Amino acid sequence: VTFEYIETKNDLCGKPSRTKGACDSTLKDENVCKYEYLHVSKTLQFTGNGAMNNYDTTSTNTAPWLEKKTIISTITIGEITTIGNYAFNGCTGITTISFPTTLTSIGSNAFNGCTGLQTVTNWGSITTIGNYAFNGCTSLTTLTLPDSLKIIESYAFNGCTQVKTITFYKVTTIGENAFNNCDEVTSIKIP
Fold this sequence. Notes:
By secondary structure, the chain is an all-beta fold. About 0% of the residues lie in helices and about 30% in strands.
């Protein structure tokens, strides 16, 4: 998959104010997940209604916005259906995320090492959380997972050392060590 960066408009410091591209250039136009990074507000915006690619940590297949991973502070997600593997790996500046109702899957390592992430305000219609998806999110304190969630894969919340409360509803599969090293948990609620 090839990604195209389109730099437009310079801000007052001479830096491009926007970076644009497609999350998956193999999809038809009506199903393309597109992203745009707004330099001034440090916001990464996703639009469209497709799925993100899966990425990894090799230099040839990292998410194109990860070159800004330490400065991205806000992510807005449109009608995306899947967050790809390693999509936001190491984005330490993100503090809050809200997923759209169209989201059904979060890939492996998607938010791995997002140490600033404190809150997920809406989990969408998610059914699966991948391996190590929120590994090392050391600022999360509460996990209120949606009733649509069926599968929590291995190590999904490993190392979320500040989580105190976990609530989940209709989960049918919890992978090995899904909540490993969540040492502060004082309450698990299964209504």
